């Protein structure tokens, strides 16, 4: 697989698989090449097998003081230049809703980690900290970048993107499960910081049959005191009213050792339903009738139940402060309409290689593709657009989209489906002969 073999300074061949199969060798060789890589010219640094404009793309050998370990990292802002199957590939932010943020909202560091500016004030204990309203610098991308902070929805999309769950290759079939997805999310959280904190320090996945996550959840709450604030992420089973006028949310796997009650105040439940109508409509269906999953990222206040006579002593009561929902296919690919789901499922069934750009916090006037095919003759990717509405406001927006695509990719240089007039999905652009992104 392209990207598996790494060339270290001096020409030594190094395999990424060693991090899993031979971690001692991994650490030993990276440590030995650390100083040499730092002082080497760009052309002599560690590199993968990817090429950009005829030149190799360098990699960094980085040392993490917090874990006393070495790792390889892509150079800042060069992730989109790598091949789509390379482990160091990162989606182009200009082809997703990330383009709506001013530059200071997502800051990529030299070690490949990112720091983000969130709309909520993170605090482990005590009352939630208010949002810092200090004005941020203006963007140098006129007309598009307006968002000055990232909401929980933007953070959920960033976690999903950094976990590689917006990309699909045929070999992923049968390997994309909710538990696998949450494991990748947990790993992605170790590379994202907000307000000086690693998101992973505050992130507790809820996954079926995953006792390690459950034990970690209780350890955090027990260690940090009677009340603290953290993120829960999981797949929603139900969101139902309780006798007190609020709502109870159940996450898939919550019964597997998590010993947790999850309450959603009525006002927050109503906000979630308004902001995430597709997710709310999906949850309104009987579980057996749902064709998709709903993911929730929830910022909660959690406390131990300590009443001596309570039958629930030792359980955790968590109340949702704010959060976000996202609807994903059985293949863990996000979508924003039933028509997008149909296209995503059809692409998976056809064995195509593609990417699903996410909206993050972008307004609807920001144009980017619904999907990008990576296995056609066009190396830069083949944009795909789904038109699914007929109302007057959408008609004007559609005209703007068509004009943008025609100007950017040329007439006939992009794929579209008018789901309002065509009941069947049109044929997809053909895959290039011999295309194997595996």
Automatic annotation (TrEMBL):
InterPro entries for the chain: DUF1173 (IPR009553)
Keyword vocabulary terms for this entry: Plasmid
Region (Disordered): 123-146
Pfam families: DUF1173 (PF06666)
Protein name, per record: DUF1173 domain-containing protein
Upper lineage: Bacteria, Pseudomonadati, Pseudomonadota, Alphaproteobacteria, Acetobacterales
């Amino acid at each position: 697989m392209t990207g598996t073999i790494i060339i270290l300074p001096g020409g030594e061949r190094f395999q990424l698989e060693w991090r899993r199969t031979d971690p001692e060798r991994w650490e030993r060789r990276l440590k030995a090449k650390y100083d040499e890589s730092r002082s080497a010219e760009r052309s002599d640094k560690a590199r993968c097998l990817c090429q950009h404009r005829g030149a190799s793309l360098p990699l960094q050998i980085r040392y993490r003081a917090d874990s006393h370990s070495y790792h390889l990292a892509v150079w800042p802002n060069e992730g989109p230049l790598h091949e789509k199957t390379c482990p160091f590939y990162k989606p182009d932010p200009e082809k997703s809703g990330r383009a709506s943020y001013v530059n200071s909202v997502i800051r990529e560091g030299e070690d490949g980690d990112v720091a983000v500016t969130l709309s909520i004030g993170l605090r482990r204990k005590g009352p939630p900290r208010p949002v810092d309203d200090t004005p941020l610098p203006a963007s140098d991308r006129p007309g598009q970048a307006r968002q000055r902070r990232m909401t929980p929805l933007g953070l959920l999309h960033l976690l999903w993107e950094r976990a590689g769950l917006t990309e699909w290759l045929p070999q992923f079939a049968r390997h994309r499960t909710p538990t696998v997805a949450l494991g990748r999310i947990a790993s992605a959280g170790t590379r994202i910081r907000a307000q000086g904190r690693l998101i992973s320090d505050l992130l507790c996945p809820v996954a079926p049959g995953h006792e390690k996550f459950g034990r970690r959840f209780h350890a955090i709450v027990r260690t940090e005191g009677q009340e603290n604030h953290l993120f829960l992420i999981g797949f929603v089973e139900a969101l139902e009213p309780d006798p007190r006028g609020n709502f109870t949310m159940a996450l898939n796997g919550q019964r597997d050792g998590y010993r947790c009650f999850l309450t959603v105040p009525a006002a927050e439940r109503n906000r979630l339903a308004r902001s995430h109508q597709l997710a709310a409509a999906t949850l309104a269906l009987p579980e057996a009738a749902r064709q998709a999953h709903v993911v929730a990222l929830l910022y909660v206040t959690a406390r131990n139940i300590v009443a001596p006579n309570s039958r629930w002593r030792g359980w955790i009561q968590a109340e949702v402060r704010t959060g976000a929902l996202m609807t994903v296919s059985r293949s863990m690919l996000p979508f924003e309409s039933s028509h997008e789901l149909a296209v995503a499922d059809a692409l998976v069934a056809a064995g195509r290689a593609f990417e699903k750009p996410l909206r993050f916090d972008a307004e609807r006037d920001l144009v980017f593709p619904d999907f990008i095919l990576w296995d056609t003759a066009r190396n830069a990717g083949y944009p795909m657009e789904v038109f699914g509405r007929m109302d007057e406001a959408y008609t004007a927006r559609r005209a703007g989209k068509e004009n943008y695509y025609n100007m950017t990719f040329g007439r006939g240089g992009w794929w579209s489906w008018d789901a309002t007039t065509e009941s069947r999905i049109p044929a997809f652009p053909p895959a290039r002969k011999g295309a194997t992104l595996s």
